[in-house]
């Protein structure tokens, strides 16, 4: 220790030069070396896709987007697992690849399969977002939202006012909501009452499904604007659904219990 102190006193210019060099190297490193959770070269074997589709119900999203794209993605080399979610107005895909897969090649193949599937997508599905998941995809912000119990549909309110605006921000890969489930209409048919009215419950289910749909109906150009047309058939409220005739003099509410409640949670 004394030798170091003696050297510093005798070689003051040398010590100052070494100190200045260390400060310069530190400043350059701070400005140029990126801060990363994992070392450069580490590749996460995940890709995620997000496909918005305006106000389409989950069943139609499943049939028109999820199933065709899943079939195409399953042909990509190295795919280990595909997880998909169909929600109102959007579809999500999470693709896991085998360890050692070249993710740059996998990304290009996934984009190729997306272009193939787009040929049979509805005409008004115009954007597909693809994200490479890496260490930076770990949540960087967690927020809590207090829900007013008097609000009937807090899930959709949060989706429209918080989730969708955040997902549109450049650089945001995904926003997840935990603790709330989307509400759905639950129809519990009473088999005995239906049979007493000489009604087939399977035919009723098919008729109800055909009553509620949305579909693309083409495009109309107005000057430089392109307007997308959509045919829609849906019930305006629960009362209209309850009063729907399902047989001669028989309404749906006479043979079924109809409620609007949160869906069962997935575990």
From TrEMBL:
Any single GO molecular-function term of the entry would be: xenobiotic transmembrane transporter activity
PANTHER family according to UniProt: PTHR32063, RND SUPERFAMILY EFFLUX PUMP PERMEASE COMPONENT 1
Recall the taxonomic lineage recorded for the source organism: Bacteria, Candidatus Eiseniibacteriota
* Transmembrane intervals: none
Entry-linked InterPro entries? AcrB_DN_DC_subdom, Acrflvin-R
Q: Where is coiled-coil annotated?
A: none
GO cellular component entries = plasma membrane
Name recorded for this polypeptide: Efflux RND transporter permease subunit
């Amino acid at each position: 220790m004394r030798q170091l102190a003696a050297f510093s006193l005798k070689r003051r210019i040398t010590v100052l030069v070494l100190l200045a060099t260390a400060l310069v190297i530190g400043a350059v490193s701070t400005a140029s070396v990126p801060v990363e959770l994992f070392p450069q070269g580490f590749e996460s074997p995940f890709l995620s896709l997000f496909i918005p589709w305006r106000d389409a119900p989950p069943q139609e999203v499943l049939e028109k987007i999820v199933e065709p794209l899943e079939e195409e993605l399953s042909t990509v080399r190295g795919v280990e697992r595909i997880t998909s979610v169909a929600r109102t107005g959007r579809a999500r895909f999470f693709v896991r690849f085998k360890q050692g897969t070249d993710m740059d090649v996998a990304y290009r193949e996934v984009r190729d399969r997306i272009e193939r599937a787009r040929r049979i997508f509805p005409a008004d599905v115009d954007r597909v977002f693809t994200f490479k998941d890496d260490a930076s995809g770990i949540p960087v912000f967690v927020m809590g939202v207090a829900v007013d119990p008097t609000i009937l549909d807090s899930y959709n309110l949060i989706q429209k006012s918080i989730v969708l605006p955040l997902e549109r921000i450049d650089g945001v890969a995904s926003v997840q909501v935990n603790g709330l489930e989307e509400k759905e209409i639950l129809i519990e048919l009473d088999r005995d009452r239906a049979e007493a009215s000489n009604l087939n419950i399977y035919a009723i289910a098919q008729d109800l499904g055909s009553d509620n749909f949305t579909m693309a109906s083409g495009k109309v150009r107005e000057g430089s604007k392109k307007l997308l047309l959509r045919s829609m058939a849906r019930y305006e409220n629960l009362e209209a659904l309850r009063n729907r005739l399902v047989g001669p003099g028989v309404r749906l509410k006479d043979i079924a219990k109809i409620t609007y409640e949160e869906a069962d949670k997935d575990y």
